[in-house]
């Protein structure tokens, strides 16, 4: 994978240091907002594994985000805390297993079919969540008590504490980045990137393409489940919109605008889009118009496609205005 | 028995309406290679146009008559400003731009008409029901809708199969470079197909307005169902879109009646089954 150039790497490290030190000076509101951004960075990086590295454009990635969130809700007793150490792996596992099942079906298709079919499967889960009484129906459900991180009588951190939660999100974002970098540097990473570049050739070389794609899909699904779990834990509720296609579309925007196939790009995308949303929907700045914040957002997205073919990350890599790619099928 | 008949009629009517939206979607993809997420928004635009114009001129038919050229004009403008940039780009950017366009159209709708749910009265001439038995009857306007949709589909088939324009469209779907080399202005064909797709979706929204409520986000719902139709039928295939629409219309209607707990999911299960059997759709070429 393209390693960030030295100057950019230095900037990213400075940004990481700033994020680490932020709780010493920051306001509580922004701690929560930044934690949300970091959760979406995990979500966006997981999608980038599919879109940017394997060449699978999924418009239904929220399916696994929602499954992670709903798993926490189901595992939380009404007035007690679920164990963090049990519920988190369970959420990741549920999302990964679902990704294996859905992946086995959707990976039979490719290109534009894949886009439509992934969207349709996420939508199916969305309707299931709306109809199911056990899942709280269209109103969703609350998680009254945050998961408890006690292990062997010792409690290393408290998820109810904003600062602790912030550091947990930061740690998991960095861990996801490191994990995905390791994966992408391994043989597996080279193979999936080979699939993106030239699938027939990789097949001719004898690689079992389907299995590699499925493995990438499962890993991405599991990480999306992790993000969904954290989102549900932070805000204490779930609703069917977690599966919604706005969620899938939004995270795809983060990946593309951040710059696909760069890993740090989706993190930038998550920051840029979440903070932009927060800014555009600020009543104090835009008065009555803040309700229509999606209008400037939409205009910016359209302009970005027309003017910045490689995303913010591409801009950072000095490839801001390269010739647009030719569609590959 | 009559109850069954009513469900079949409802399913066919919903399917035919879907066809108007899905056929544009599949043509725009098949010929220009553009995946258009904003296609459902054109359906919504049609419904709101019918609502606003009907209030203005006091008559639904007149509103539709004004609304269609208006939709064509909007389609041509969008093609000129945005979609033209997308023809040779990666699907990723098509998804991104058309997603942005959905947000813009929803907000413009919200600014112009507001966020309330609206309805239009069924035109008085057709506001009655045909009695099937002592207790059951069927609204005539729904039959009329089906007839209008069928006529539109027939007209479309005629244009595509029998006219010179249709021949160019079919050739363009197969091999745009060759069509261009033969001295035909493929850009003009693209413009016509795109504007026709927009007008068809908007027209569907207009004639559906009296029986369905008009609400924010109504375009997204029909977009996703249209995707399912296109996947089942095979991308780029009009016949596939027709068959897929009817299948989905019936599956959805009967799903609501026979298995209300999983209603809303039936069509996706049908799609999964078709994918297992024929990954490229019923009429797909891959």
Task: Describe the protein in words.
The complex is a heterodimer of chains A (329) and B (286). With 329 residues, chain A is mainly α. Chain A is built from 14 helices and two strands; from the N terminus they run αααααβααααβααααα. Chain A has helices at residues 6-25, 28-54, 62-75, 84-106, 111-131, 162-185, 187-197, 199-204, 209-235, 245-258, 264-280, 283-286, 294-307, 311-316, and strands spanning 141-142, 237-238. Chain A has a two-stranded antiparallel ribbon with strand order 1-2. Chain A is globular, with a radius of gyration of 20 Å. The relative contact order of chain A is 0.18. Mean pLDDT of chain A is 86; it is low at 319-329. Chain B has one domain (2-277): Orthogonal Bundle (ABC transporter involved in vitamin B12 uptake, BtuC), CATH 1.10.3470. Helices cover 72% and strands 2% of the residues of chain B. Chain B has a two-stranded antiparallel sheet with strand order 1-2. In chain B, a hairpin with a 5-residue loop joins strand 1 and strand 2 (137-139). The longest helix of chain B is centred in the first third of the chain and has 31 residues, at 2-32. The relative contact order of chain B is 0.20. At the A-B interface, helix 5, helix 10 and helix 13 of A face helix 4, helix 9 and helix 11 of B.
Tags for this model:
heterodimer, A: 329 residues, mainly alpha, two-stranded antiparallel sheet, 2 strands, 1% strand, disordered C terminus, B: 286 residues, ABC transporter involved in vitamin B12 uptake, BtuC, 72% helix, 2% strand, globular
Write the layout of secondary structure elements.
The complex is a heterodimer of chains A (329) and B (286).
Chain A: H1 6-25, H2 28-54, H3 62-75, H4 84-106, H5 111-131, E1 141-142, H6 162-185, H7 187-197, H8 199-204, H9 209-235, E2 237-238, H10 245-258, H11 264-280, H12 283-286, H13 294-307, H14 311-316
Antiparallel strand pairs in A: 1-2
Helix pairs in contact in A: 2-6, 2-9, 2-10, 2-11, 3-4, 3-9, 4-9, 6-7, 7-9, 10-11
Chain B: H1 2-32, H2 39-57, H3 60-81, H4 91-113, E1 129-131, E2 137-139, H5 140-162, H6 164-174, H7 176-181, H8 186-208, H9 218-233, H10 238-258, H11 266-277
Helix pairs in contact in B: 1-5, 1-6, 1-8, 1-9, 1-10, 2-3, 2-4, 2-8, 2-9, 3-8, 5-6, 9-10, 9-11
């Amino acid at each position: 994978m393209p390693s960030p150039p030295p100057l950019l790497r230095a900037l990213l490290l400075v940004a990481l240091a700033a994020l680490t030190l932020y709780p010493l000076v920051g306001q509580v509101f922004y701690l929560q907002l930044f934690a949300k951004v970091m959760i979406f960075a995990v979500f966006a990086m997981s999608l980038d594994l599919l879109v940017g590295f394997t060449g699978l454009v999924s418009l239904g990635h929220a399916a696994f985000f929602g499954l992670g969130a709903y798993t926490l809700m189901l595992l939380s007793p009404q007035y007690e805390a679920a164990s963090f150490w049990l519920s988190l792996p369970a959420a990741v596992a549920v999302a990964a297993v679902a990704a294996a099942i859905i992946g086995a079906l959707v990976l039979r298709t490719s290109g534009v079919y894949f886009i439509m079919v992934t969207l349709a499967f996420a939508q199916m889960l969305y309707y299931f969540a709306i109809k199911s009484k056990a899942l709280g129906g269209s109103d969703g459900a609350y998680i009254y008590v945050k998961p408890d991180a006690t292990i062997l009588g010792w409690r290393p951190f408290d998820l109810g504490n904003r600062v602790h939660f912030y550091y947990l999100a930061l740690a998991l974002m960095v861990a996801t980045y490191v994990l995905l970098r390791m994966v992408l540097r391994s043989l597996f990473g080279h193979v999936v990137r080979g699939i993106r570049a030239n699938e027939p050739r990789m097949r001719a070389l004898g690689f079992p393409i389907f299995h590699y794609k499925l493995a990438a899909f499962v890993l991405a699904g599991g990480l999306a489940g992790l993000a969904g779990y954290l989102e549900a834990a932070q805000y204490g509720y779930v609703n069917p919109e977690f599966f919604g296609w706005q969620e899938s579309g939004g995270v795809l925007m983060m990946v593309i605008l951040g710059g696909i196939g760069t890993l740090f790009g989706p993190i930038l995308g998550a920051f840029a889009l979440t903070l932009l949303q927060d800014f555009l929907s600020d009543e104090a700045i835009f008065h009555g118009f803040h309700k229509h914040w999606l209008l400037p957002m939409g205009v910016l997205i359209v302009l970005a496609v027309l003017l910045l073919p490689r995303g913010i990350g591409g801009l950072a890599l000095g490839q801001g205005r390269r010739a647009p790619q030719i569609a590959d099928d | 028995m009559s109850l069954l008949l009513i469900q079949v009629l409802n399913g066919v009517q919903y399917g035919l309406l879907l066809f108007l939206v899905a056929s544009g979607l599949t043509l725009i993809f098949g010929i220009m290679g553009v995946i258009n997420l904003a296609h459902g928004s054109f359906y919504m635009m049609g419904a709101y146009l019918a609502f606003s114009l009907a209030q203005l001129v006091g008559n639904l038919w007149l509103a539709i008559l004004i609304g269609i050229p208006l939709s064509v004009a909007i389609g041509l403008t969008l093609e000129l400003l945005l979609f033209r940039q997308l023809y040779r780009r990666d699907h990723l950017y098509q998804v991104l731009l058309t997603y942005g366009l959905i947000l813009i159209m929803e907000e413009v709708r919200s600014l112009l008409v507001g966020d309330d749910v609206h309805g239009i009265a069924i035109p008085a001439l057709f506001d009655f029901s045909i009695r099937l038995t002592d207790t059951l009857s069927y609204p005539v306007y729904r039959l009329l809708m089906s007839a209008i949709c069928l006529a539109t589909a027939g007209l479309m088939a005629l244009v595509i199969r029998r006219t010179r324009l249709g021949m160019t469209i079919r050739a363009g779907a197969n091999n745009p470079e060759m069509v261009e080399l033969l001295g035909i202005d493929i850009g003009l064909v693209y413009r016509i197909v795109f504007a026709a797709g927009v007008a068809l979706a908007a027209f569907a929204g207009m004639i559906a307005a009296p029986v369905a409520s008009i609400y924010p986000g109504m375009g997204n719902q029909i977009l996703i169902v249209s995707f399912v139709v296109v996947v089942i039928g095979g991308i780029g295939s009009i016949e596939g879109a027709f068959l897929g629409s009817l299948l989905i219309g019936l599956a959805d209607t009967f799903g609501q009646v026979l298995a209300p707990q999983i209603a809303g999911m039936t069509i996706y299960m049908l799609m999964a089954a078709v994918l297992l059997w024929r990954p490229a759709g019923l009429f797909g070429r891959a």
